[in-house]
Every structure is written in C-alpha cells, then in structure tokens.
Automatic annotation (TrEMBL):
Pfam families (UniProt xref): NUDIX (PF00293)
PROSITE patterns, A to Z: NUDIX
Record-linked SUPFAM superfamilies: Nudix
Classification via InterPro entries: NUDIX_hydrolase-like_dom_sf, NUDIX_hydrolase_dom
Gene3D superfamilies from the UniProt entry: Nucleoside Triphosphate Pyrophosphohydrolase
Keywords, comma-separated and alphabetical: Hydrolase
Domain Nudix hydrolase: 44-178
Signal peptide: none
Name listed for the protein in its UniProt record: NUDIX domain-containing protein
Organism for this UniProt entry: Streptomyces longisporoflavus
Length: 208
C-alpha cells in the first residue's frame, strides 16, 4: 500500500472574501459535504513560501532569531520568505531569501520537503530547500527593516537543533521539519536521493 496525498476539490456553492490584507486574505466558502449538507469554512489565503536549510561543511545549519508578534516569541528559524510574485520560481525565491537574510550563497540546491503548514485553516504551501557548498555573497548587504532589523544569525550543529526540537525548545515549523527531514535523509539514502531543485511543485506551479 502506497500512502500518498491526493488532490481533490469538493463543490463550493458560494464564496466571499471578507478581509484582504497586505500579503494574505481571508476567504469564506460554503462547501458541500459527502452527505449533501453545506458547511461554511473560513481560511487564510496565502501566496506560499520558501525556506532554506543551509548546511555548511562543518555540519552546522544557518539559523536566525527573529521576533514573531502573533506568538509573542523570538524564534530561531531558517531563512524563509514569501513567494511575492505569482508563478515565481521557488528556487530563485529561496536564493534571494538566503542572500537577503544571511548574505550567503550556495552552489548545491535540492528539494528537502514540501509541506502545508496549517491545512485546517490556511492554504499556505512551503517548499523547504537544502542548500550546501556555502560561501559569503558578494556585494553590499541587503538593507533590513522592521522585525528583521533586530535579527541575530548563528550556525548551529544539526544535532543540536534536533535536540532542541525534541526538547520543546525550538518551535518554528520550517526549522523543525527541515532539521528532522535532513536527519532522516542522512540516516537513510543520503542527499543524492533528494529531488532536484527544479522538481515540480503542484501546490504552487511555476515556470523554469
């Protein structure tokens, strides 16, 4: 038996968008259930995101610490950002985020995993890349603002991140999924078994 998610779309009899924000919005759909009843579902409409687990030659992961107001925490995270342009190539977006947030570039890119962060209430899809062969980016550093102006950077051994995740000390979704996924890859078939950086992504189709 192969366990695999499958695309499916139930009938929507009515839809409205009661709130439109700067980057996301809220949609209300009336959805027909299998027994024929119609129920209302509210959810956040999100453009999608990319995240980068950047691993250096010493087995350390590049992480940053940033204030996240909705949860009132400073969280350790991996570089990440929105897919600001519809149809944007996720690899290009990930390379941009790694440069802007850490002033780092990478020569080797693979798809680590794809996730829906909160499928019960948001349609956000995230592609997490593994980036290796790191080096300092050329040129001037990107000028950060707002929460990013207070950001801290560090390089932490992968094993220490896994320890922190399992101890309940690290909570960022992309860091948790990325660190545990890479640990599984290294204990299994190895990095060469990962999908290429330009692998199709049905959740957020893109042009090469």
């Amino acid at each position: 038996m192969t366990i695999k998610d499958t695309a499916e779309e139930w009938q929507v009899t009515a839809t409205q968008t009661p709130f439109v924000g700067n980057k996301t919005s809220v949609r209300t759909d009336d959805v027909v259930m299998p027994d024929g009843t119609v129920v209302r579902r509210d959810y956040q409409v999100h453009p999608g995101s990319v995240a980068v687990l950047a691993l250096d030659d010493a087995g350390r992961v590049l992480v940053l610490r940033q204030y996240r107001h909705p949860v009132r925490h400073k969280l350790w995270e991996i570089p990440a950002g929105l897919l600001d342009v519809p149809g944007e190539n996720p690899l290009h977006a990930a390379q941009r985020e790694l440069y802007e947030e850490a002033h780092v570039k990478a020569e080797d890119w693979r798809v680590l995993t794809d996730v829906y962060t909160t499928p019960g209430g948001c349609d956000e899809a995230v592609r997490i890349f593994l980036a290796r062969d790191l080096s300092e980016a050329e040129g001037e550093r990107f000028e950060v603002a707002e929460e990013e102006a207070d950001m801290e950077l560090a390089r932490v051994p992968l094993e220490e991140l896994v320890r922190g995740v399992l101890a309940g000390e690290l909570h960022n979704n992309c860091l948790v999924v990325g660190a545990l996924s890479l640990t599984a890859v290294l204990a299994g078939d190895g990095v060469d078994s990962l999908r290429p950086a330009d692998a199709p992504w049905p959740a957020r189709p893109f042009e090469a």
